[in-house]
Amino acid sequence: MRADNAPVIRLEDYQPTDYLIDTVSLAIGLHPTETRVTATLALRPNPAGHAGASLALDGDELVFVSAALDGSPLAADAYTASPEKFVLHRPPQQPFTLTIETCVNPTANTKLMGLYRSNGTYCTQCEADGFRRITYFLDRPDVLSVYTTRIEADTDTPLLLGNGNPAEAGALAEGRHFAVWHDPFPKPSYLFAIVGGDLDHVEDVFTTASGRKVKVAVYVERGKRERARYALDALQRAMRWDEEVFGREYDLDVFNIVAVSAFNMGAMENKGLNIFNDKYVLASADTATDSDYANIEAVIAHEYFHNWTGNRITCRDWFQLCLKEGLTVFRDQEFSSDARSRPVKRIADVRVLRSAQFPEDAGPLAHPVRPRAYKEINNFYTATVYEKGAELIRVLKTLVGGQHFRRGMDLYFERHDGTAATIEEFIACFAEASGRDLSAFSQWYEQAGTPRLSARGRYDAGAKTYTLTLAQTTLPTPDQPEKRPMVIPVALGLIGESGRELPLTTADGATDGGVLVLDGAERTVIFTDVVERPVPSLLRGFSAPAILDLDLTDDDLLVLFAHDTDAFNQWQAAQTVATRIIVRAVDALHAGGTVQVPVGLAQALGHFLDARALRDPAFAAQVLSLPGEADIAREIGENIDPEAIFTARKAVRETLGQALAGKLAHLYGELAIDAPYSPDAAQAGKRALRNGVLGLLTAGDAARGEALARAQFDAATNMTDRLGALSVLSLVAGEAREAALQAFYDRYRDDPLVLDKWFALQASIPEAGTLERVKRLLSHPAFSLSNPNRTRALIGSFAMANLTQFARADGAGFAFVADVILQLDPANPQVASRLSTAFRTWKTLEPGRRAHAEAALRRIAAATPLSQDVADIVTRSLA
Ligand code: PHE
Ligand code: ZN
């Protein structure tokens, strides 16, 4: 169906179902091309529904075989069955069972939704609406049922996993065997899963706080067992943390994680049987970077945490997606903060928010954290729902305070366990726990767009007062021309020019706990007894997802960089100064001038490195990592010329690299690690800084940097150092680069996940030759458009992480990506659709590039056939 004629689904139209399904009994006979599914559903009329209504079950590409009511075959006129629907015309008005047999072909399933095969392993993906590709069902999250699943397969598929606890297993005639799984917790169909395969695994026993023993296991393809150990360890740390911090214990006898190589998303929280993209499971020193390890830890924790936030309490409808996703991202962020460095994690998360969510919120695809309407739900697994959704939980916690937050969570778990809830119900728990009116806060869920917060301060030396005025505005977004003020908690402090933190005294106690709440368009506060001219440190810890517009000078910002007690704002101050310098450099280049040497910043960075680099390398690495091209583009906002930004940023890095050359070289030596590799935060921080130092050093002195990079590449004992060196080398055209790329390929030619890094790195080279290189790599034997990770590595990196080349002035980058989207769409619309979001900032480009982007989008929009997924994205992008 085309998006133009696809129905719009609206929140306000929500209706409960006319029937409920209490239990589901599934018998699945696995077969590569003809898998038989027999579903026996125990149904009854829903007291909240329409009495006597017909029963319409969802299907998608299903082959209907047979149907029976209470055990007797249905008469032909009692039902209609098509690939998309099964309708029982006159259902009984008391409890009844419906048995439906369907047939599916997992081998031909290239959409990777429903039952499919990944390298021969049978696996499923049901969220959001893939269960209907397995059997006819009321495939929506507010229908909760108890599932029993019997899986039958040939003995060459020895491992058979399902949701819940194992109940029974055994051998059958003719080389077949079976396993029965029973999940006692009622769940929606999107949490259903099975796996069938011949896999290796690692396992352990986790003892919960109340003393129950849980068998935990991670399953991976044969030969990759050792690479599963870190994931298993992360899982158990996450289980313990959720007990300690949220009081949540695991509830089944087993918890299984299965890694598959073909997966549309990151991972999936199916009850008791998480299925993962193997990129978020497999790790070894030789194949995974420190960031891979950190991502694995975060995603393992995320999916585990869903067991309570998502599974035990699920979503009433897909509009409430942030109820499980924003909350669970918040929980995984907190877990990683506790496991590593809190400020560094906060900086990393805000970087993701700004680079992924801010552009979404500022462009044609903007939508509220809780959307009001959608055509294709798969297009709403967005940075807004996930990352901004997590920020809103953080805002809520700041507003009500830590204790009330925890009490609100407890109340939520107690009150809504076993149900499908809404955002209103969630917020009500915190209103009740804190005794506060949170109706104004809940606007954050309804209004799209990032608020712009401006701050103006005036110091009166005679009166010793500091008057601070905060104001907010939000630009219009699609369907929301008028914006209301949001409730913005502004965590703040005042830093004296001497560098000390000044006490916050106001007549009315407006800044309790160092937080000032702005809940109208503007607010002015007068601080008294301010003994020296202060520099305000605002939005500490990034206390709300807003864009801060400061009236501070570069020198003021450097005071914050040197003295702020809030690590986030210390980092932010350096970033803001660097951003201003690069934006000025862009302006200078446009005016035909030259780039100014950023003396003040160079000096400040020098002092900072002397004082902090060896004490807190992970933080220092964040400071040295200057704003990227996309950050600068966002700051400039319109008529973007990516080449100018690239040139300006490069020039600034060059001058900084030269100014700091001595210190950088010294640090590079000091930061070398003798000990054997460990992915822990301390070692990872050192490597991150050392690689950052190498990059800046090379920016200042190419010959020297390259020599160091080549030596590091040759001597590396782990992937972080090897890839860090290779990415520095990749920026310099010539034989050395090609030789290093070849050496890397030769070493890892049989390792798809590592080759993804190799594809991604080449696709990210900011040079005119890259498009040809990417086109060549499309036909590399290791590349395949049918594997989402390969596609994202090569095409995704080109479109999302190589601004100058994707947005080439001649339009060839856009045209190429459009071609790939159209080629991929018939096989895997979800991955094609995600790729097409690379165009989301097209309207901010200068007119020439904008016209090319528009032409590419129009060409996609006009193609037939086109999936509803891609049609929805391109239509909204063009609107
Ligand atoms: N629910 C998954 C998560 O966030 C993401 C996902 C969505 C996976 C849709 C597959 C399909 O943990
Ligand atoms: Zn999730």
- Discrete helix count: 26
Measured on Cα atoms, how large is the radius of gyration? Answer: 28 Å
Spatial strand sequence of the major β-sheet: 6-5-9-3-2-12-15-14
Mean pLDDT: 97
Strand content: 15-25%
Give a quick precis of the structure.
The protein is α+β, with helices and mostly antiparallel strands. It has 26 helices and 32 strands.
Compile the SSE list and pairings.
Elements: E1 9-10, E2 19-29, E3 35-45, E4 55-58, E5 63-69, E6 72-73, E7 79-82, E8 85-88, E9 96-104, E10 114-118, E11 121-125, E12 145-154, E13 159-162, E14 165-171, E15 176-187, E16 194-197, E17 200-207, E18 213-220, H1 229-246, E19 254-260, E20 267-268, E21 273-277, H2 290-305, E22 314-315, H3 321-339, H4 342-362, E23 373-374, H5 383-400, H6 402-416, E24 420-421, H7 423-434, E25 452-460, E26 465-473, E27 488-496, E28 501-502, E29 515-518, E30 522-527, E31 534-538, E32 547-550, H8 554-563, H9 567-590, H10 599-612, H11 617-624, H12 629-636, H13 642-659, H14 661-670, H15 681-700, H16 702-715, H17 719-729, H18 735-748, H19 752-763, H20 770-778, H21 788-801, H22 803-806, H23 812-824, H24 829-836, H25 847-862, H26 868-878
Parallel strand pairs: 2-12, 18-19, 19-21, 22-24, 25-32
Antiparallel strand pairs: 1-23, 2-3, 3-9, 4-8, 5-6, 5-9, 7-8, 10-11, 11-16, 12-15, 13-16, 14-15, 17-18, 20-21, 25-26, 26-30, 27-28, 27-29, 27-31
